[in-house]
């Protein structure tokens, strides 16, 4: 037996992010306004690589198999929180590497990366939150830097407007979430999730409890950009710098799901609130409605967009709908399976969706237009990047040779197994529809003839590195799905034993 | 691990070619494609196996089987192996790919590295389709074929390439999903008796009659419904009339090397899957409905040939002739006799070689004359005698001239289907009439284009083709003759794998 680490080191992924943020502040205070991009971006990338490495190491070593509870039980580190920490950290690595080129001529270098690190810290904490107070604080910690990041292109009206819209909806949702938490606290007298669970079964105040739970669900819907709190998402994703769009639509969404999974499964047990004889609060029904509406609306809206970035933004709403199936199918009795399907999809999604937005970052770097037609014939000039993008799009659509096929298949299979075949059917139909708009981009890149001349004078190293890493992982996730599935199952088992 | 190595080497080659500069891509791709070719020939020479891959008591060559993902009650395996049905198809794939790459040197003059990379990627997927024995893994490879095909037709094709590429993609992708639903319904119907998507396990459970009902469907209905779903799914790929309309478009628009792969190997995916799924897993449904399936087969033969007769575009003639030839394969399969099924498998290989030959020679003619219209050409024989000689040889192979591969295949099929089931005599007789039509349209086309006085309505200088254009033609014609003279090169192997499928007390030979 090797040396036993002190228990607080279980939070090392979060500490790594926080320490990197502080380090970036120190660098910035020594040399304010520094343009030393290799140092700053390198620090951020290494910091997030460290977080990814630590979480992967913990997962492999089985650190979370026995949950580690810290800080008066308000934080818990288990297989699930480590699984999600790995998802956030790997997305952050890609985003930092890609930002090296994207933020080339920008003045707030250190601030930008420090904000990314702080947001990632918040997300990592969201996955570990075992108390509604930590839920709220960590959610705010990840949201506040995000508002600033969306608006960081200060001279770009779209960016500022997006930031403002994001901030307003965020503030509203936060207050809804806080109010919901206060109602639940009023009913149960505790903020710790297990204690809430003990109290909800015995309370008579099901009405107040129901409103509280619905409000909490609303707060989380905002974070994962589910209908009806989705309308900030297309604007924010379109206006934000493309790496930040990748960060928000992949990592931030996964964080929202991580916290939603834990809060709803641990604090509001399905068997007491939904399926038992005295059931009063059917939040699973709400999740079902949310799932169906979110995926349908997201996919239909994506199909009618003119610009690729906005299409990806709406499709990301659609994917939130797919993952909501994991919550919506919980009362079917095969909880672990469908939940693992949702988590595995989030992991695969982290790579394929980040990759797709990073490709957009690349085209913005080259100042290629935003419309579908502007991508016409791009494959003739940048074949490697277009192969990567094709991999991401087909994977997002759920075509077989890629990781997205596996995760969608298991998610839908999980829903069928839990008896919610109609949820799976709606998901499959939506998925088939999504092939239409994803393949529009593929068709434009490969098959259409170029309309104008592309001005591709350089191939940025950081963006290309991030893009190819994401593409390789998206492909490798298919043969490697066995281990992804195993970790996802472990993570799900941490919640529903 | 030989199959894995074969696929991995091909994929790695595809990647290397993709990154290579355009100038060297063509030669590099051909050189790299010799690796899987050598590999498959080596595997062929050391092949040692017995029985059918899906049935109990068989010994597979180069088999690997290990657990990949365990999810709930089902295990997904990585399971590959070759039997007498798949080994010839794997060899065919590697041979045709190398030759098709050689045939691309002249017509492909832009974005070469992408073209050759995609061709090798296509080869890797096809090798996967013919060697995978776990349904999930097999389906991954099956769909993987579509992606390079879509781009290959869509980018390097003729004037209506976008339409053809999308039509091909939509038709075959929808067909795959219909088939997928049918097959998965069977798996659910088997309930607890299978714990994996392993094709041998499922085939054996189905043949043992362990299928239960599913929801409101009884076992009998489920069987027929799944059979129909799978049959329709694969019929589009074959293609069988009336699901054939995507094929002529795809063929006419596709560049020559892609047509070679499409007719030579991709269509075989459909018949191969029919043999593996419909005819192996649900033999009783196939036999009970033999006359209906045979009717589809005969219609494909006759209607395809009639359509070919009516074409004015040389490539279209060859394209429709594929519909007709694949009809023979279906007829052989449905006969359910040793000769019928063996002949059908043999015809897959023979047609792969002969149709590759035909498309390649049409391509060579097009490269020099820049027209494919029968009415624009006349008397080519005097200007490019060698190409014309090969074309004539290929056409004779197509017509089923004895001592060529097509003859052996068709003879086996007719022997096998004659008297195999009630009414099969008439179906066989009708299909035999197809040969006459085939000879008719091929001779008619040749008479108009190749012979007579030289006259073409183009501005191009017509002369002998380059060495690298005719070399693959010679290789193919030699292979076609070799298989015709000594069918046993493949046939014993095929027979050994088909034998266990045939019921002891079947009709016919």
How are the SSEs placed, and which strands pair?
The complex is a heterodimer of chains A (497) and B (509).
Chain A: H1 12-30, H2 37-61, E1 68-70, E2 75-77, H3 79-102, H4 109-128, H5 132-150, H6 157-188, H7 193-200, H8 206-224, H9 232-239, H10 242-267, H11 270-273, H12 283-303, H13 308-328, H14 335-365, H15 378-381, H16 383-397, H17 403-417, H18 421-446, H19 461-476, H20 481-495
Antiparallel strand pairs in A: 1-2
Chain B: H1 2-19, H2 22-45, E1 61-71, E2 74-82, H3 86-103, H4 112-131, H5 135-144, H6 146-156, H7 161-190, H8 199-207, H9 219-237, H10 246-253, H11 256-281, H12 283-288, H13 290-309, H14 314-335, H15 338-369, H16 385-399, H17 405-417, H18 424-449, H19 467-485, H20 488-498
Antiparallel strand pairs in B: 1-2
Helix pairs in contact in B: 1-2, 1-4, 2-3, 2-4, 3-4, 3-11, 3-15, 3-19, 4-5, 4-6, 4-11, 6-7, 7-9, 7-10, 9-11, 10-14, 11-14, 11-15, 13-14, 13-18, 14-15, 14-17, 14-18, 15-16, 15-17, 15-19, 15-20, 16-18, 16-19, 17-19
Compact overview of the structure:
The complex is a heterodimer of chains A (497) and B (509). Chain A contains 20 helices and two strands. Chain A is mostly helical.
**How do the strands line up in the largest sheet of chain A?**
1-2
Number of distinct beta strands of chain A:
2
Q: What portion of the residues of chain A fall into strands of 2 or more residues?
A: under 5%
Strand content of chain B: under 5%
- Mind telling me the C-alpha Rg of chain B? 22 Å
Measured by residues with Cβ under 8 Å of the partner chain's Cβ, the largest interface is: A-B, 28 and 27 residues
Can you give the helix content of chain B as a percent range? over 70%
Helix fraction of chain A by DSSP (H/I, runs of at least 4): over 70%
Largest sheet of chain B: 2 strands, antiparallel
Q: Number of helix segments of chain A? A: 20
General shape of chain A:
globular
Q: What gross morphology of chain B would you assign?
A: globular
Order of helices and strands of chain A: HHEEHHHHHHHHHHHHHHHHHH
Q: What structural class is derived from the secondary structure elements of chain B?
A: mainly alpha
Identify low-pLDDT runs of chain A: none
């Amino acid at each position: 037996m090797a040396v036993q680490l002190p228990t607080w080191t279980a939070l090392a992924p979060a500490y790594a992010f926080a320490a990197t943020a502080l380090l970036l502040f120190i660098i910035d205070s020594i040399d304010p306004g520094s343009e030393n991009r290799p140092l700053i971006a390198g620090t951020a990338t290494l910091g997030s690589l460290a977080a990814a490495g630590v979480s992967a190491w913990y997962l492999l070593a089985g650190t979370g198999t026995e949950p580690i509870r810290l800080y008066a039980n308000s934080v818990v580190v288990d297989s699930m929180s480590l699984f999600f920490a790995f998802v956030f950290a790997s997305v952050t690595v890609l985003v930092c590497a890609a930002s090296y080129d994207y933020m080339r001529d920008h003045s707030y270098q250190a601030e930008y990366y420090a904000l990314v690190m702080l947001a990632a810290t918040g997300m990592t904490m969201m996955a570990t939150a075992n108390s509604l107070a930590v839920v709220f604080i960590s959610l705010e910690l990840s949201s506040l830097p995000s508002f600033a990041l969306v608006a960081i292109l200060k001279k770009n009206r779209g960016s500022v407007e997006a930031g403002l819209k994001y901030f307003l909806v965020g503030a509203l949702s936060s207050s809804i979430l806080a109010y919901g938490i206060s109602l639940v606290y009023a009913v149960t007298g505790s903020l710790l999730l297990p204690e809430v669970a003990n109290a909800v079964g015995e309370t008579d105040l099901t009405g107040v409890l129901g409103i509280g739970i619905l409000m909490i669900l609303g707060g989380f819907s905002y974070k994962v950009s589910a209908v009806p709190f989705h309308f900030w998402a297309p604007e924010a994703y379109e206006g934000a710098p493309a790496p930040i769009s990748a960060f928000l639509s992949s990592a931030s969404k996964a964080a929202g799901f991580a916290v939603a999974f834990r809060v709803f499964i641990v604090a509001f047990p399905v068997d007491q609130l939904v399926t038992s004889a005295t059931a009063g609060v059917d939040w699973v029904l709400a999740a079902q409605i949310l799932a169906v509406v979110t995926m349908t609306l997201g996919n239909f809206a994506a199909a009618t967009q003119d610009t690729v970035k906005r299409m990806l933004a709406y499709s990301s709403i659609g994917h939130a709908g797919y993952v909501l199936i994991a919550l919506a199918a919980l009362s079917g009795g095969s909880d672990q399976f469908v939940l693992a399907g949702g988590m595995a999809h989030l992991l695969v999604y982290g790579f394929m969706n980040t990759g797709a937005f990073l490709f957009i970052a690349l085209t913005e770097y080259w100042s290629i237009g935003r419309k579908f037609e502007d991508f016409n014939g791009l494959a003739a000039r940048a074949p490697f990047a277009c192969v990567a993008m094709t991999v991401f799009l087909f994977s997002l659509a759920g075509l077989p040779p890629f990781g997205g096929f596996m995760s969608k298949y298991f998610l839908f299979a999980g829903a069928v197994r839990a008896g919610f075949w109609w949820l799976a059917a709606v998901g499959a139909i939506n998925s088939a529809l999504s092939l239409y708009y994803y393949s529009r981009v593929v068709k434009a890149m490969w098959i259409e003839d170029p309309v104008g001349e592309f001005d591709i004078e350089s191939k940025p190293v950081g963006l290309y590195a991030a893009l190819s890493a994401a593409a390789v992982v998206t492909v490798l996730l298919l043969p490697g799905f066995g281990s992804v599935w195993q970790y996802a199952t472990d993570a799900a088992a941490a919640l529903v034993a | 691990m030989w199959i894995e190595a074969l696929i991995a080497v091909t994929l790695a080659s595809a990647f290397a070619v993709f990154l290579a500069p355009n100038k060297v891509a063509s030669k590099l791709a051909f050189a790299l494609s010799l690796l899987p070719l050598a590999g498959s020939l080596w595997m062929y020479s050391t092949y040692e196996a017995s029985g059918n891959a899906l049935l109990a008591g068989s010994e597979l060559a180069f088999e690997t089987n290990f657990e990949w993902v365990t999810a709930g009650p089902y295990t997904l395996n990585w399971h590959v192996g070759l039997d007498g049905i798949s080994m010839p198809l794997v060899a065919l794939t590697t041979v045709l790919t190398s030759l098709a790459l050689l045939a691309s040197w002249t017509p492909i003059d832009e974005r070469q590295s992408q073209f050759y990379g995609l061709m090798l990627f296509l080869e890797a997927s096809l090798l996967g389709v013919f060697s995978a024995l776990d349904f999930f893994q097999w389906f991954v490879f099956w769909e993987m074929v579509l992606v390079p095909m879509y781009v290959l037709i869509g980018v390097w094709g003729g004037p209506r390439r976008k339409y053809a590429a999308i039509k091909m993609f939509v038709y075959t992708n929808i067909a795959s999903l219909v088939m997928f639903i049918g097959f998965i319904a069977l798996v659910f119907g088997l309930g607890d008796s299978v714990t994996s998507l392993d094709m041998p396990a499922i085939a054996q459970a189905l043949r043992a009659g362990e299928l239960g009902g599913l929801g409101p469907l009884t076992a009998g209905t489920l069987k027929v419904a799944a059979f129909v779903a799978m049959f329709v799914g694969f019929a589009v790929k074959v293609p069988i009339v009336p699901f054939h309309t995507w094929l002529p478009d795809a063929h006419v628009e596709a560049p020559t090397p892609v047509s070679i792969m499409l007719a030579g190997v991709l269509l075989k995916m459909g018949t191969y899957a029919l043999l593996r799924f419909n005819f192996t897993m649900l033999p009783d449904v196939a036999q009970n409905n033999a006359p209906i399936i045979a009717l589809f087969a005969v219609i494909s033969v006759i209607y395809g040939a009639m359509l070919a007769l009516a074409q004015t575009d040389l490539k279209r003639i060859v394209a429709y002739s594929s519909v007709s030839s694949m009809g023979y394969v279906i007829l052989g399969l449905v006969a359910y006799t040793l000769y019928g099924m063996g002949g059908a498998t043999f015809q897959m290989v023979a047609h792969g070689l002969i149709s590759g030959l035909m498309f390649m020679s049409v391509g060579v003619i097009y490269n020099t004359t820049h027209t494919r219209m029968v009415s624009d050409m006349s008397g080519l024989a005097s200007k490019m005698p060698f190409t014309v000689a090969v074309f004539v040889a290929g056409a004779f192979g197509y017509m089923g001239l004895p001592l060529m591969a097509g003859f052996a295949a068709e003879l086996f099929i007719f022997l096998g289907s004659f008297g195999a089931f009630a009414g099969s005599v008439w179906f066989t007789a009708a299909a035999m009439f197809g040969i006459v039509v085939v000879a008719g349209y091929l001779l008619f086309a040749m008479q108009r284009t190749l012979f007579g006085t030289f006259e073409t309505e183009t501005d191009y200088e017509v002369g002998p083709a380059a060495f690298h254009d005719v070399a693959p033609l010679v290789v193919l014609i030699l292979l076609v003759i070799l298989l015709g003279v000594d069918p046993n090169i493949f046939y014993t192997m095929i027979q050994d794998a088909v034998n266990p499928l045939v019921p002891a007390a079947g009709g016919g030979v």
